[in-house]
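Q: For a teaching session next week I want to show students how multiple molecules come together into a single three-dimensional assembly. I've collected the sequence lines for a complex. Could you give me the predicted structure tokens for the whole thing so I can convert them for display?
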Amino acid sequence: MALSQGRLGKYNPEKPTENRITDIGPRHFWDFFPPVIQKNYGKWAYHDILEPGIMVHVSETGDKVFTVRCGGSRLMTAENIREICDIADKYCDGYVRFTTRNNIEFMVTSYEKVQELKKDLLSRKYISGSYKFPIGGTGAGVTNIVHTQGYIHCHTPATDASSMVKAVMDELMDYFTGMTLPAHVRISMACCLNMCGAVHCSDIALLGIHRKPPIVDDNIDSICEIPLAIAACPVGAISPAKTEDGRKSVKIKEDRCMFCGNCYTMCPALPLADKEGDGVTILAGGKISNRISEPKFSKVIVPWLPNNFPRFPEVVATVKKIIEVYAANARKYERIGDWAERIGWEKFFELCDLPFTEHLIDDYRLAYDTYRTSTQFKFTGKAWEVSRAAGGIDD
Amino acid sequence: MEFKPKRPQKDLKYDELRIYTDEELHNYSEEELKNFKLKHDIPDLDELEKGPWPSFVADAKREALHRKKLADDRLMIDKDVVDDLLGQLQLSFDDGETHWKHGGIVGVFGYGGGVIGRYSDVPEKFPSVAQFHTLRVNQPASKFYKTDFLRALADLWEYRGSGMFNLHGSTGDIILLGTSTEQLEPIFYDLTHELDQDLGGSGSNLRTPSCCIGKARCEFACIDTQDLCYEITTHYQDELHRPAFPYKFKIKVDGCPNGCVASIARSDMSLIGTWRDDIRIDQEAVRAYMAGDIEPNGGAHKGRDWGKFDIQKEVIDLCPTGCMALEDGQLKINNKECNRCMHCINVMPRALKPGRDTGVSVLFGAKAPILEGAQLAVLTIPFMKAEAPYDNIKELVEKVWDWWMEEGKNRERLGELIQRKGLPKFLEVIGVPAAPQMVRHPRTNPYIFWKEEDVPGGWKRDINEYRQRHKR
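A: Of course. Below is the structure for the complete assembly, covering every listed component.
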């Protein structure tokens, strides 16, 4: 048993199926559970968050497991993994876990070890000063931002991911290492409408979008199946056309395009990325938990902000502002969406000092479901603007 | 309780598997790292080394240095691959556009999924990332690891790939970022033969199923999420590795309605643990919470002074169904009215526990926007038992797949097909009766699609007979 070396290792291209192993699935989870987890599987009685990022789970058997949760950047190197393993070997008998939100969890069975581990983790910094393993991400705070690939590896992004997340988390550090919010706030980031991270039900969602219709490549007939490209458009904005020299092509009805990018996914001859066109949309008020209120979608609250690499100051400031206004106004246990619904979205925009534009009124499918069909509303500055414009009031 | 894997698991020992020696692993000093310059100017990325949050740039730089100091024959992918990756990222910032080409069909023999081809559109500037393919590796359920496995994986990927990972991708897989076409088969060979580990899904197939932490470390889990996830993953290997579907299909398992893997928002089939008997109450612990002896909500609100715990305000009044009350100092729950939202249990986990008669609620059709807009999953099966070998769940999955493969259009997710054909049609396909639990409220339009057999006498009528009663 050893990992292979040499250009092709133990793989023989002459006989590709010889001794081939396929379809074995993942390693079995039981084998990777620390002994305390194996012993107390299904027997956990309760948990307590001792301090931000540090939890104790207590079993019916009396056993305890202490977890120290650390934020991590989702993009990690072999060097980083080795350092995580060094820590896990030193304190956790060689076991470690990752969370769905890209945190790293170290588990130990004594409180003394928690203290040593905590000291060790917080002492580890990159030469430029960033923490390698900041402790936090539990309870009524902000946990790690889940995100997608962005410019690091994706062919359709409208913005970058790792850099935006780094910029936002730098600013929200106190909310990661603290539990001062009314409820937890889940922030998610996706770099295009494909939403590989499915961010559409997050308390705050950051989403890369395009704003220019696709360019039609002259060679489209030799690059992709034209009928497929036409069929790819969910709003019928693409139709057949001929080039000046008589080759088959397509034309774009630009006023129909909603910039989803599906045409580009189906046909590389229809690129739509653009430095000025692309940017960030912010959505808020979604959740996936069934707790108290039903799961719900996030709503678009900022239609577009510029891709200001690498620190996205406009995005960072908006996210921070929403969280601060929410923290100051919401009730205990109230998620951002529940708070906005209780006070009314018109108040949300007023309190957060966010401009409300026509881009925030739905004009896509099922838009009518979002229109107010009632006189139950609250007066805000925006309401007086309408009254003035309609000649309803003088001042 | 102990789980037996379907096949014996190899006991992995890093010292037997390893590629690099200790000297090779510790081949640079702090001083060298401080003075280290990449081959490209990356001013915006340098900026991202600042600030308290872990910097992926600082991390990548140490990988770049480590690679540079290894001997030429100790790497199968160019030493400069991380330099070029960061260089291309800087160029993408400058241009405001990605520099990865669209498409690229590569894979390992016999699989259609698990590998994503990726090529740079500026290979002359960044030759080491000219080919930069991804492998998706099927993560172990709930993402627990032994360090022997992780260290071996790090060696394998540093040797035959870029050394850059995502831990983890959004679907849950371990993502190996960046290798050449030539190295795909040797990597797959070592993954399966040495690390006892398979690839995950990509393309129009079953994507790698994932689950929450479940009974491994959570008192709320109603079902064995890992076991169910592992069983589905291994049972459907063919569907995971050989694309035969109209588009992707995601299955995710949440242990309770808190939904920590977000199955309700991002899986075509969402299995959520629940119970159908009564919430278990420990009245003594209820009193302890009321007396302030135990912190509410597992201590989640410790960072701020919210005042003394008030059971009326924080639990009873927030119950969405109003099914709770305090009577003579005892907490009473009218379980018939409970909708199992988890709030009371979350606030007082030492006093309240889910019932013991557990199973799953099954919801279908969640997805992100493309194509028809975002959808949350629709509650379809209010309750079904979820016990190994989960034959009832597999039967249900297969009915859904048969219909979707027959009727679904290219790139049409299940949720979109259900919209196009209507939920009643979907219910007919899976053979369950309609129930008010499936809708928020009954339809508001009376445009009911009656079928001929619904109406006495059928639809065929004689115009002459009609005219005998009504002149033209």
